[in-house]
Design a protein that fits this description.
Length: 202
Amino acid sequence: MRLVVVSAGLSVPSSTRLLGDRLAAAVGRRADVDIEAVEVVELRDLAVEIAHNLTNGFPGRRLAAAIDSVTSADGLIVVTPVFSASYSGLFKSFFDVIDKDALTGMPVLIAATGGTARHSLVLEHALRPLFAHLRAVVVPTGVYAASEDWGAQGLDGRIERAAGELAGLMRGLSGVRAAAEDDLVVVPFAEQLAALSSPSGA
């Protein structure tokens, strides 16, 4: 299976890239999924081509290769720094130039980095709705890392839990136990109406 990490970090070194690498390594350690290759797409290196694609509708060579890698992956890890309480413009622009149906059914792990824990809800109010709109399948656990989280025990736990969920989806499992069909009792509408119109006590 092929795992692709999309990193929107701007600095070198980048905490955003570091988080993406740690998540990918955690997925790779899972015994229940066989990761043959991990590819990292650094959006910083594609910024000019992304801007040109937005204005002329045609991807450059490197951008086209990155889009092909992302859309043909078996699973995605997407990581963005938080700017103005949301994902970065570069991150959003990259997914804007991908065909809206290309990520349908794609297993995706969402993650973000920021300077303060106050921005942790970016995962739920920005990233998760974006990938729901693209009809990707987003794992339940998102991973946010504030500056104080690096080296903290809690971050490792979230990384491992999210990695396990992504591995499950990549194997074709939802990780969520579906209710057994026998537990669902459907009463036909006509029968419900008949019960309402019956005399009391009948």
